[in-house]
Structure to design on (96 residues):
C-alpha cells in the first residue's frame, strides 16, 4: 500500500485525512479530501445532516477571491445560527 493511503473501515482514505484528524489540523488535508470524507460519512450513516451550510473561497483569474456557498435543509435564519455557533466553537477551541 502506498505511504499516502490509510485504511478506514475497510476503505482506503488519504494519509492527509488521517493525519489532519489525528492532529486536529485542517491545513493538513485538501478541501476535496474533506468533502469526500463528509460524503463518505453520510453514505455510511455516520452523519445524517438535517441542515447544512458549506462555504468555500476560490481564487479568480484576476487574483481576488470568489466566495461560494451551498445550503440545504434549512432557512436563512437556521444557516446564520449554524454559522454563528460554528464561529463560537472555532474561537473557543483555538486556544488563542
Amino acid at each position: 500500500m502506498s505511504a499516502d493511503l490509510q485504511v478506514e473501515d475497510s476503505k482506503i482514505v488519504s494519509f492527509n485525512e488521517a493525519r489532519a484528524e489525528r492532529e486536529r489540523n485542517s491545513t493538513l488535508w485538501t478541501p476535496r479530501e474533506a468533502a469526500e470524507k463528509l460524503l463518505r460519512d453520510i453514505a455510511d450513516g455516520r452523519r445524517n445532516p438535517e441542515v447544512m451550510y458549506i462555504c468555500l473561497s476560490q481564487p479568480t483569474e484576476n487574483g481576488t477571491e470568489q466566495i461560494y456557498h451551498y445550503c440545504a435543509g434549512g432557512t436563512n435564519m437556521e444557516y446564520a445560527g449554524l454559522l454563528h455557533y460554528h464561529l463560537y466553537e472555532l474561537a473557543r477551541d483555538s486556544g488563542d
Remarks:
- The helical segments are 15-23, 31-43, 76-93.
- DSSP finds three helices and four strands in the chain.
- The chain has two domains: 1-48, 49-96.
